[in-house]
């Protein structure tokens, strides 16, 4: 469900990363090569990017498929940035939130996207609602699983947690409450990229000291693309990429003892 991508590096047109590659995000909206769940990402799209000297990103989002927006390719041809996060969406459940439900979500300097789905949404995460201040729940940008996961992460970020810790703790918390969830998360502040591989594909391409791309799948056939192992936290900058294994909460589950037969 969904495809997403983040880039940090030298300033370049958005289209060079999103539209121009033979298997870029634009094409992945109707012909993804490595998507395990769903086949078409036509339920909205968005791109967020950073302008030089301004730490707060701009966003362009729409409710329909990226290929139906006749202005996007032209906009992407001329708008330049040294950092971006973009996504095309295949909705977990049909809803009426329109472009508000399309990633990237944003707050302050951060941009966020979720590729995957929370099993049993919304009932499976009822217990986590009480961990958030009521105002945070009431001000959620959309009423979908991705927006709620973002609210959980944002609460941790605002409390001072580092990006990697905020994503890790949220993934483990949601996975424990809703086993089987797919939680590939992608976060950037314009200088770094933090991501999780949890149930779906994730790849990265780095030119050390110059640029890093993290994406649901490679946008071309460059042999230097590296696949991120499942259950992994990725932290990256322009200069390096660090992979850290994540512990699956289901691995600690102890089978219940067999019940004694009734007499």
UniProtKB/TrEMBL annotation:
<protein>
    <recommendedName>
        <fullName>Gamma-glutamyl-hercynylcysteine sulfoxide hydrolase</fullName>
        <ecNumber>3.5.1.118</ecNumber>
    </recommendedName>
</protein>
<dbReference type="InterPro" id="IPR029055">
    <property type="entry name" value="Ntn_hydrolases_N"/>
</dbReference>
<comment type="pathway">
    <text>Amino-acid biosynthesis; ergothioneine biosynthesis.</text>
</comment>
<dbReference type="InterPro" id="IPR052373">
    <property type="entry name" value="Gamma-glu_amide_hydrolase"/>
</dbReference>
<dbReference type="InterPro" id="IPR017808">
    <property type="entry name" value="EgtC"/>
</dbReference>
<dbReference type="InterPro" id="IPR032889">
    <property type="entry name" value="EgtC_Actinobacteria"/>
</dbReference>
<dbReference type="InterPro" id="IPR017932">
    <property type="entry name" value="GATase_2_dom"/>
</dbReference>
<dbReference type="InterPro" id="IPR026869">
    <property type="entry name" value="EgtC-like"/>
</dbReference>
<keyword id="KW-0378">Hydrolase</keyword>
<keyword id="KW-0315">Glutamine amidotransferase</keyword>
<feature type="domain" description="Glutamine amidotransferase type-2">
    <location>
        <begin position="2"/>
        <end position="263"/>
    </location>
</feature>
<dbReference type="Pfam" id="PF13230">
    <property type="entry name" value="GATase_4"/>
</dbReference>
<comment type="function">
    <text>Catalyzes the hydrolysis of the gamma-glutamyl amide bond of hercynyl-gamma-L-glutamyl-L-cysteine sulfoxide to produce hercynylcysteine sulfoxide, a step in the biosynthesis pathway of ergothioneine.</text>
</comment>
């Amino acid at each position: 469900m969904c495809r997403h991508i983040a880039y940090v590096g030298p300033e370049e047109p958005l289209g060079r990363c999103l539209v121009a590659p033979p298997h870029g995000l634009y094409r992945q909206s109707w012909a993804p090569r490595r998507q395990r769940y769903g086949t078409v990402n036509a339920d909205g799209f968005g791109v967020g990017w950073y302008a030089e000297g301004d730490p707060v990103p701009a966003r362009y989002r729409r409710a329909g498929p990226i290929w139906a927006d006749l202005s996007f390719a032209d906009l992407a041809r001329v708008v330049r940035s040294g950092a971006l996060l973009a996504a095309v969406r295949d909705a977990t459940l049909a809803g009426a939130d329109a472009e508000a439900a399309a990633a990237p979500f944003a707050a302050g300097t951060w941009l966020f996207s979720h590729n995957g789905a929370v099993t049993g949404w919304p009932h499976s995460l009822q217990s986590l609602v009480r961990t958030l201040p009521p105002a945070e729940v009431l001000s959620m940008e959309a009423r979908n699983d991705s927006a709620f996961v973002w609210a959980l992460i944002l609460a941790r970020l605002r409390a001072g947690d580092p990006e990697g810790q905020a994503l890790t703790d949220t993934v483990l918390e949601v996975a424990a409450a809703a086993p089987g969830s797919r939680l590939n998360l992608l976060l950037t502040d314009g200088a770094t990229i933090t991501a999780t591989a949890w149930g779906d594909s994730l790849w990265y391409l780095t030119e050390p000291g110059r640029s890093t791309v993290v994406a649901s799948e490679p946008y071309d056939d460059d042999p230097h693309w590296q696949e991120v192992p499942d259950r992994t936290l990725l932290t990256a900058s322009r200069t390096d990429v660090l992979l850290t294994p994540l512990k699956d909460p289901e691995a600690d589950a102890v089978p219940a003892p067999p019940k004694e037969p009734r007499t």
